[in-house]
Amino acid sequence: MPDAALRLKSLLDQLLGAPLPLRIHAWDGSEAGPPGAPTLVVRNRRALRRLLWKPGELGLARAWVAGDVTVRGDLYAVLDLIAGLLWERRDDARTLTEALRDPDVRAAVSGLVRMAGPPLPPAPPREEVRRRGHLHTKRSDRRAISHHYDVGNDFYEIVLGPSMVYSCAYWATPDGTLEDAQRDKLELVSRKLGLTPGQRLLDVGCGWGSMAIHAAREHGVSVVGITLSQEQAAYARKRVADEGLTDRVEIRVQDYRDVTDGPYDAISSIGMAEHVGAERYLDYARDLYALLKPDGRLLNHQIARRPQLDESTYSVDEFIDAYVFPDGELAPIGSTVTQLERAGFEVRDVESLREHYALTLRRWVANLEAQWVRGVRLTSPGRARVWRLYMAACALAFEHNRIGVNQVLAVRTPESGASGIPLRARTWN
Description:
- Belongs to the CFA/CMAS family.
- This protein has 429 residues and is α/β, with parallel strands linked by helices.
- The chain is built from 17 helices and eleven strands.
- The radius of gyration is 24 Å and the shape is elongated.
């Protein structure tokens, strides 16, 4: 009688020191666990070998990307339960080292080894990044950006929809359309920057050109948009031409460190600063400060993590670093504000859009799931699984306040002290 699921659940219960809150469906067709609970489908023994060789998040991620494990039912419900096991363990929960001192746990691990079969570790899925060289050089940043953004413009059209905006939308109501929410976000940025006809805007990390086009079309500014992605730049240039805005919008494949044609009246940096890195963040802020004219404004839209009691213990998310944003780093909002001010900026407003990003990510997941077959065809099964898992997990992280996203408005205030910010700033006039 098939019993792999029952054996696996019993072993995992012993390892966790508590009943596994998931139902398991194993490769031999057997099932075990709470009836009606979200189900983790373990398709083969190779999944166990991945977990044994890389216990925790990276092993699970490799099994998911390779298709060795999947879920049956609500993906968000499964991820919520797994988060409780991997990322939100109680302070009094025993560590793996402590657990392995328990003879029953050592027996459970031995049982997993026997169930897993051949001891050799499976090769990581081909979608996993192999890190080379130093972090955040111009070369390594180009490589990291290419990994994430050069997946294929057609694939991103499925996920992002017609707006082609790959950052947090700004929702009036949860049941609004993604396109309206993204248009409202671009308009919010434009109003915070105080854009008026004839000004020059630098859009750092311009993506597929949406902010540049909106600012030029709706506010009459001249825009330079820069990206490190060749595919994004080609797509953005075509959109600019189709809108008849080639006289007002220039799209460059260029590193922000190489921009020398300031001063600009305003700079937008939307979802780009996460790629900069903690060691280079002050230089990033100083570079943008130098590119602004006196009283020029910067709108820095950036994901933030929660601060640690001991910042020396912080480590990057293994799954996201290996499969999604290589070399990406998140900082607490307090650190970001401090670095901007150290560079010379006067920070005038900080607005949290955490709940807005959760809504945005859930819409992106729904878009991908609705066109799953086409999405797989445009990329690969593994790449599509990466994006589905990453976006769903991030939606939950925003909902549970594990991460946030903030718009920071900063000004290069002149010596006179005249910032140009209205007295009632939240009107954004």
